[in-house]
Amino acid sequence: MLVSMLAATALAQEVTFALDDAKAQSLGLDTSDLEAQLNAAITDQLNLSDPNTYVSKYANAVAMSTKGMGVDYASNPKMFSVGGSIGTAVSGVPVSFSRGPEDLPEGGYAFMAALHAGVNLGVLTPGDKGPLDHVLIYVSGLGFNPPGSREFEASMYNFGAHAQIVLGGMTSGPAEWGGVALTGGYERSWYKLSLGQALPITQEISPATVTWAAEGTYDLSATADTIPLELSTNLRVTVLTAWVGGGVDIVPSGSATSVASLDGPVSASAQGQNEQLGTIGVSLAGTGQADLQVPRIFLGVQGNLFALKAFGQLNIGLNETYGGFIGLRVAM
Questions:
Q1: Taking Cα atoms as reference points, which of 299, 301, 297 lies closest to residue 316?
Q2: pLDDT value at residue 126
Q3: Could you list the residue range(s) of the whole structural domain that residue 33 is in?
Q4: Spatial CB neighbours of 1, under 8 Å, sequence gap ≥ 6
Q5: Taking a C-beta distance cutoff of 8 angstroms, is the pair 244, 68 a contact?
Q6: Is 21 helix (H, G, I), strand (E, B) or coil?
Q7: What's phi and psi for 100, nearest 5 deg?
Q8: Fewer C-beta neighbours within 10 Å, C or N terminus of the chain?
Q9: Under the phi-then-psi rule, with left for phi > 0, alpha for psi from -120 to 50, and beta for the rest, what region is 204?
């Protein structure tokens, strides 16, 4: 029996092999090469090479994931706006709106959904066009476990509160300019991925197919508290509205962690022969922080069918973090 260990700096992650050299050789496998290739596959699929940097990207993605979901930038509501949206955010990878085929996303990732409700404070003084007609208050939030069939299961929650002051605006025929909106608020978002079932990692190592059936715990979670400060404007022409804005997201608290303790058998098959070669264990501990300030631009489009609105928005952070969402709302 050959026992070996491959460990990273400061023991942030550790891959331990306990393999039977004689059984490996009976399949034509060199144990040292077998361990090296399996270690590379496990490190790649479980993102073990730099866990602190990896989870920092998660913190950035979670901080971006709810931006814009709790505010109506397009409808210029005179009374109220209520609706819901779903979307994602990524960090450290090209713009994408899915987790991809990997067991874990390549970079930071977060899925979010939120309900929002807003009111124009002018409803408190009906018939009187005063300063309150230019002030809107929004609240938003939601929490649930998104359905899925992957080994890593997701859970999320978010809530937020925003105030918006609108200056200017005018209507001319079929067009309406919504003026300039100053928006600020507070948001908290949380996202977690947890290993919920056995995770097979398979590697072709000539002349055999080798599989490690990993079981145990692997939790990756991120929480972000953010204060978005934004400036935006919108323009409606008949049934379409477009908006654009920019600002900065202040992140007084944003962090992520990854913790894993995995173990499982290693099997190999070659030319009709199957062998149990031993076991592999993995331990992991990673921590990371979100960027403290993130300049951001955003843009979106909305289709208007009377009070019913369908909309989508794209967020572009200047720290290689991107987010986007689609939704429906009723605004009057």
A1: 297
A2: 84
A3: 2-331
A4: 18, 19, 20, 21, 278
A5: no
A6: helix
A7: 85, 180
A8: N
A9: beta
Task: Tell me the backbone φ, ψ of residue 146, rounded to 5 degrees.
Answer: -60, 135
Residue of 272, 276, 282, 317 whose CA lies nearest to 298: 317
Residues 161 and 72: beta-carbon distance below 8 Å: no
Residue 221 is which amino acid? S
Q: Supply angle C-alpha 33, 13, 258, rounded to 5.
A: 130
Distance CA 254, CA 319 (A): 15
Report how many domains make up the chain: 1
What amino acid is encoded at 321 in this protein?
T
The structure tokens 């994408």 sit at 96
Concatenating the DSSP letter of every residue in 22-68 gives: HHHHHTT--HHHHHHHHHHHHHHHTT-SSHHHHHHHHHHHHHHTTTT
The torsion defined by the Cα of 15, 153, 286 and 293, in degrees rounded to 10, comes to 150
The per-residue pLDDT for range 210-240, each reduced to its tens digit, is 999 999 999 999 999 999 999 999 999 999 9
Q: What percent of the chain has pLDDT over 70?
A: 95
Token duo for residue 145 = 């476990």
Place of tokens 């124009």: 120
Are the beta carbons of 195 and 216 closer than 8 angstroms? yes
CATH code for the domain of 292: 2.40.128
Span 181-202, pLDDT tens digits: 999 999 999 999 999 988 999 9
Both tokens assigned to 237: 């022409």
> Residue 14 has which token pair?
């550790």
Contact indicator for 102, 120 with CB cutoff of 8 Å: no
